[in-house]
Design goal:
The complex is a heterodimer of chains A (303) and B (255).
Chain A: E1 6-8, E2 11-13, E3 17-19, E4 41-47, E5 60-63, E6 66-69, H1 77-89, E7 95-100, H2 105-116, E8 123-127, H3 138-141, H4 144-157, E9 161-165, H5 173-182, E10 187-190, E11 194-197, E12 199-200, E13 205-206, E14 212-216, H6 221-234, E15 239-241, H7 248-257, E16 261-264, H8 267-270, H9 274-289
Helix pairs in contact in A: 2-4, 4-5, 5-6, 6-7, 7-9
Chain B: E1 4-15, E2 20-26, E3 39-42, E4 54-57, E5 60-62, E6 67-73, H1 77-83, E7 90-97, E8 110-115, H2 120-131, E9 137-142, H3 151-155, E10 160-164, E11 171-172, H4 180-183, E12 188-192, H5 195-207, E13 211-215, E14 231-234, E15 237-240, E16 247-249
Parallel strand pairs in B: 8-9, 8-12, 9-10, 10-11, 12-13
Antiparallel strand pairs in B: 1-2, 1-7, 2-6, 3-4, 3-7, 5-6, 13-16, 14-15
The chains are: A alpha/beta (303), B alpha/beta (255).
The structure holds flavin-adenine dinucleotide, flavin mononucleotide (FMN) and FE2/S2 (inorganic) cluster.
Chain lengths: 303, 255
């Protein structure tokens, strides 16, 4: 038997494979394909205080080994989540994490307070890195002072595990990791999507309604891995790595570079059962290599 | 109805023109219950340019043999790869996806309107309608006679009317110019084709107070409701075409 369990503080995850926000809906959409309770956690869709309609169509453009999206945090708001979604998903036997978004500092605070009261949500992922909204989002994640303030403010009201999700669209991501750790983040997740764009040469206009969007998929994996490695060396809190993970081998690279857990994103669009396949692949890798605990390989290349 | 991933064996690929084909696939398992209007997401291996799956309509189904057909128009790398498949090759799909056309309970007079590759879901729909005692007419629009597809197949459903933009076959012009629209009074129109065509058909139906459903072909990343990339603006807000569509009543759309 291999021990796949990991911890963020005293919060236990039965295994280190989570779904990434915005790429798994609320988990229920994957029910047909596998038992989502097998995963270590589900990070549900980006949630805001008020309902949001998101950006105009087209919101997606395929790019070599990846895609750009400009969804813009479409969601029905926290009231709807609490009364309609939460009752449906709180029965899953896994850690359900809400991805928290806001346009202002007050939005982040009020939303975190609301979610703090939901018994079956043991952690939030503070998204200060969405490239697809005009106000808030990435503005908080690309300015050190703002990143500090929002983490501090949410930490003051949120009593459970606080994960802060970083943007790769900065000069030195390590500075941001250190700041949010200083302000009391229990864990750091990275990376969100990379700012990018595509142009439709037939129509002679941008492919996305918002012109720029966020790049995800295997195209970004080397960038993500490099940043996870840098951050994991610089902070003491557990790091959750993501960005372009398609297979168990990809995930294992992240563990070896220092990630304590991984999130599975865009690949789920192509193979809805990818998260559980990756989980199984990690387990058999550990067996094959003669390790009895996932913790033995976390940061292995840095020892 | 549960969605699933399946590896389908190609059992036939009929090349219709240089850029259209009908590919037939077979499942080793019992096919799930498919309804007309639904689609599948086809994985295209072998190129970084075809990273995402490609949505393709269910064209015709043979439940007895666990087989179904897809009508393919080559537009780019993905559809070209499908066009080149041979019997014995395999195709990985997620199916069945999306909602379906609503089949009426009353004795409606029905018209199916298709343009180009948009005729694809109408064959399966027409056959299901016919099996339930309807006698739908079929109106198809093409650019010119060399692009006219599968008239024989559609003739099995009912009377077929054709328009071509250059008048090389049938009546000249667009589908909404066809004389059958003035000579027959339809209760329902089901339509699939280019947006520009569906919009004029929708306008016509609105004006004449005809029930009308259209099938949209929005860009999709996942096809089963997790990415929110495929939205259309409706009276209910932005909703996903892959789960709440692809078939919409025109009264819901903000066209
Ligand atoms: C619900 C649904 C059902 C469909 N049914 C069928 C079908 O039965 N048969 C069939 O041949 N095709 C169908 N399509 C369209 C098909 O999915 C696209 O043509 C295909 O994805 C193009 O992939 P490609 O790699 O060949 O071309 P790409 O290289 O991806 O694209 C080639 C060109 O076509 C344009 N394009 C691609 N997809 C779309 C789209 N969805 N709408 C408008 N422009 C597009 C691109 O912008 C580009 O200019 C359907 C689409 C949807 C959403
Ligand atoms: C369509 C789409 C929607 C996303 N929505 C969110 C979101 O709401 N909140 C968030 O923090 N990240 C969001 N992300 C980013 C992912 O969670 C993830 O950080 C990123 O896609 C990189 O991982 P990947 O390459 O494995 O997809 C979204 C990504 C995609 C593709
Ligand atoms: S294509 Fe992903 S939600 Fe519709």
């Amino acid at each position: 038997m291999v021990n796949l369990g990991i911890n963020i503080g005293d919060l236990h995850f039965k295994n280190p494979v989570l779904t990434a926000s915005g790429t798994c809906g609320y988990g229920t959409e994957l029910d047909d394909f596998f038992d989502v309770s097998r995963l270590g956690g589900i990070v549900v869709k980006g949630t805001t205080l008020e309902p949001r309609e998101g950006n105009a169509y087209p919101r997606m453009a395929e790019t070599p080994s990846g895609m750009l999206n400009a969804v813009g945090l479409q969601n029905k708001g926290i009231d709807y989540f609490e009364s309609n979604i939460y009752p449906k998903i709180s029965g899953y036997d896994t850690n359900i994490i809400v991805n928290v978004n806001g346009s202002t500092l007050d939005d982040y605070i009020s939303l975190s307070e609301r979610i703090d009261r939901l018994e079956k949500i043991p952690a939030i992922e503070l998204n200060i890195s969405c490239p697809n909204v005009k106000k808030g989002g990435m503005i908080f994640g690309t300015n050190l002072q703002s990143a500090r303030e929002v983490t501090r403010a949410v930490r003051a009201v949120y009593t459970k595990k606080l994960i802060v999700k970083l943007s790769p669209n900065v000069t030195n991501i390590v500075d941001f990791a250190k700041v949010v750790e200083e302000e009391g983040a229990d864990s750091i997740s990275l990376i969100n999507t990379l700012l990018g764009m595509a142009v439709d040469i037939n129509m002679m206009k941008p492919s996305l309604s918002t012109v720029t969007g966020g790049l995800s998929g295997p195209a970004i994996k080397p960038v993500a891995l490099g940043m996870v490695w840098q951050v994991a060396k610089a902070v003491k809190v557990p790091v959750i790595g993501m960005g372009g993970i398609m297979t168990a081998s990809d995930a294992i690279e992240f563990f070896l570079a220092g990630a304590s857990a991984v999130q599975i994103g865009t690949v789920t669009f192509i193979d809805p059962a990818a998260p559980v396949k990756i989980l199984e692949g990690i387990e058999s890798y550990l067996q094959r290599k003669g390790f009895s605990d996932i913790k033995d390989i976390i940061g292995y290349i840095n020892h | 109805m549960a969605k699933c991933v399946d590896d389908l064996k190609v059992v036939g690929n009929k090349l219709l023109t240089e850029d259209f084909c009908v590919i037939e696939v077979e499942s080793g398992k019992k096919l799930p219950e498919f309804r007309p209007g639904q689609f599948v997401q086809v994985r295209i291996d072998g190129s970084p340019a075809t990273f995402l799956r490609r949505p393709i309509s269910i064209h015709d189904v043979d439940f007895g043999k666990n087989r179904y057909k897809m009508l393919i128009q080559v537009l780019g790398k993905g559809t070209e790869t499908i066009y080149r498949l041979k019997s014995g090759d395999y195709l990985n799909v997620i199916h069945p996806l999306g909602n379906s056309f609503t089949i009426p309970d009353d004795k409606s007079k029905i018209l199916l309107v298709g343009g180009g590759c948009g005729i694809a879901p109408l064959l399966f729909l027409g056959k299901q309608l016919k099996a339930r005692g309807f006698e739908p007419d079929v109106l198809m629009g093409f650019r010119n006679s060399s692009r006219v597809l599968e008239i024989e197949e559609y003739s099995q459903i009912g009377d077929v009317f054709v328009t071509t933009e250059d008048g090389s076959l049938g009546e000249k012009g667009y589908v909404t110019n066809h004389s059958v629209l003035t000579s027959v009074k339809y209760d329902r129109i089901y339509c699939c084709g280019p947006d520009s065509m569906m919009k004029v058909v929708a306008e016509y139906s609105m004006k004449n107070n005809i029930f009308c459903e259209v099938s949209l072909e929005n860009l999709m990343a996942c096809g089963f409701g997790i990415c929110l990339c495929c939205i259309v603006e409706t009276t209910r807000g932005n909703i996903c075409t892959c789960t709440e569509g692809p078939v919409f009543n025109i009264r819901e759309l903000k066209w």
